[in-house]
Amino acid sequence: MAIANKHHPLLLAVVVVALSLAAAAAAATLAGLRHRSPVRMRLYMHDVIGGPEQTAIRLIWGVGPPHKSMPGRTFGDTVAVDDLVTEGPSIGSPAVGRAQGTYMLSSQREAVLVVDITVAITSGAYNGSTIVVAGRDRVRDETRELAVVGGTGALREAAGYVLWRTAKVWSEIHMTLELDVHASVPAPADDAVATE
Ligand SMILES: *[C@@H]1O[C@H](CO)[C@@H](O)[C@H](O)[C@H]1NC(C)=O
């Protein structure tokens, strides 16, 4: 720095400006982090693929080539879901919403689904809001990580991740998934009351 000062005053000025910009960017990042509120939820989603209480239907089935690691399945198999979401793992636990969307068998070789669901929340602090979850579900892994890619209402601009687990296989047609949601939403601005 001393050398730069003596021989290259312009270089010193450039360094000072660059450092100031870096400091400003770091402060903005910290402010951005401070101004998000955490969203933590643990939800249970009931996939019922048959019987009178069915909530998941096969849309595309057996069209693609036979699957390499899931006998009886074919690449591209797709299910539409309108699953009940409850507070606890039992289907009799209080309802908190519906998980609506699709699963597609998206790997030709591995047991991997790509999931795209929106959870419409119907009780509690986020009643009337939705949270959008998407990602890769490697079904034989104990815990899978999917992304929280957005939301609406009180969950607008939600971002984060979901730890996704098969919580319980109750029968051939009923399986419960646990969605452990770790996300955040922008916090209301400190001066929101003053300016509105
Ligand atoms: C959720 O919101 C709807 C619409 O405002 C309302 O009718 C319903 O009672 C609320 N449910 C709960 C459990 O708070």
From TrEMBL:
<feature type="signal peptide">
    <location>
        <begin position="1"/>
        <end position="27"/>
    </location>
</feature>
<comment type="similarity">
    <text>Belongs to the plant dirigent protein family.</text>
</comment>
<dbReference type="InterPro" id="IPR004265">
    <property type="entry name" value="Dirigent"/>
</dbReference>
<protein>
    <recommendedName>
        <fullName>Dirigent protein</fullName>
    </recommendedName>
</protein>
<keyword id="KW-0964">Secreted</keyword>
<dbReference type="GO" id="GO:0009699">
    <property type="term" value="P:phenylpropanoid biosynthetic process"/>
</dbReference>
<comment type="subunit">
    <text>Homodimer.</text>
</comment>
<dbReference type="GO" id="GO:0048046">
    <property type="term" value="C:apoplast"/>
</dbReference>
<comment type="function">
    <text>Dirigent proteins impart stereoselectivity on the phenoxy radical-coupling reaction, yielding optically active lignans from two molecules of coniferyl alcohol in the biosynthesis of lignans, flavonolignans, and alkaloids and thus plays a central role in plant secondary metabolism.</text>
</comment>
<dbReference type="InterPro" id="IPR044859">
    <property type="entry name" value="Allene_oxi_cyc_Dirigent"/>
</dbReference>
<keyword id="KW-0052">Apoplast</keyword>
<keyword id="KW-0732">Signal</keyword>
<dbReference type="Pfam" id="PF03018">
    <property type="entry name" value="Dirigent"/>
</dbReference>
